[in-house]
Amino acid sequence: MKVKGSAPGKLMLFGEHAVIYNYPCIVTTVSPRIYVEAEITPGQFNIDAPQVKNVRFVEETVKLFSKKYNVDNKLLIKTYSDFSSQYGFGSSSAVTVATIYALSKIYKIKLSKREIFDLGYKVILNIQGVGSGFDIAAAIFGGTLYFVIGGKVIEPLSVKELSLVIGYSGVKADTTKIVKNLEFRIHNSELEYRKIFEKIGRIVEEAKISLVNGDWEKSGELMNQNHQLLQELGVSTEKLNRMCLTAIESGAYGAKLSGAGGGDCMIALVSKDKKEDVESSIVDAGGEIINVKINV
Known about the structure:
Blueprint (H helix, E strand, L loop, with lengths): L1 E13 L10 E16 L5 E3 L7 H14 L5 E7 L9 H16 L6 H16 L5 H8 L2 E5 L4 E5 L6 E5 L6 H14 L1 H23 L3 H18 L4 H12 L4 E5 L6 E5 L5 H10 L3 E3 L6
Parallel strand pairs: 3-4
Antiparallel strand pairs: 1-2, 2-4, 2-5, 5-6, 7-9, 7-10, 8-9
Helix pairs in contact: 1-2, 1-3, 2-3, 2-4, 3-4, 5-6, 6-7, 8-9
């Protein structure tokens, strides 16, 4: 018997990095999904996962699931994906959650969303050593979420018609390395960084209201403020800054990097009539437009 599980990727709207230090963030899902197919076999555990950049997430998920629920791990796991792992869309968390879904189906074990989150978050921490769990939560709950580290708060937000342009910088960033480098710098100047995180936390609280109210001008302004603080943290790049600036100059409400920084993606909040202009400006700045549905 074969069973399937799937989970979406994510996109950070507000609060990256600060979320690691107990401040809230806002994350939304994107339409591309990762799919996991599981089949019980008479042989050994085997993974066929050419699209997954790190099969350790599948391996660790199966290991923890088997131990926790006392089931055999003689499985063939196959994965396939709608999106490339080169983009910072949280493929590791998506494949972790999709694997849990598939295992729960094949062994007929009913799990609550909270149980799935706790198991998935443990997988991420076991492998990466750092992480807040927002990408695990996004893969489970979908839509747009207000989130606090470790799932202390997972609050779905009713956000409608979120119109974003996503620009890829062409540089694949190492999220774990960037987070750990920032952690090292914080130890040398904790007060200075804490003030930045507090400002980001306040921006997230304001954005939570403006997004639900559909106040795009305010949301865009908050994006600009968030990006400026991420620049102060030293996690942006010249190219990301250029892509954000040109998006604003061509009519976006606001723009910021999305994710750990150091490369990967930026986002611009736009009105429908300005979308093409903003996309063209990002391409002119050397970016690549990624067309996906948001808040799914």
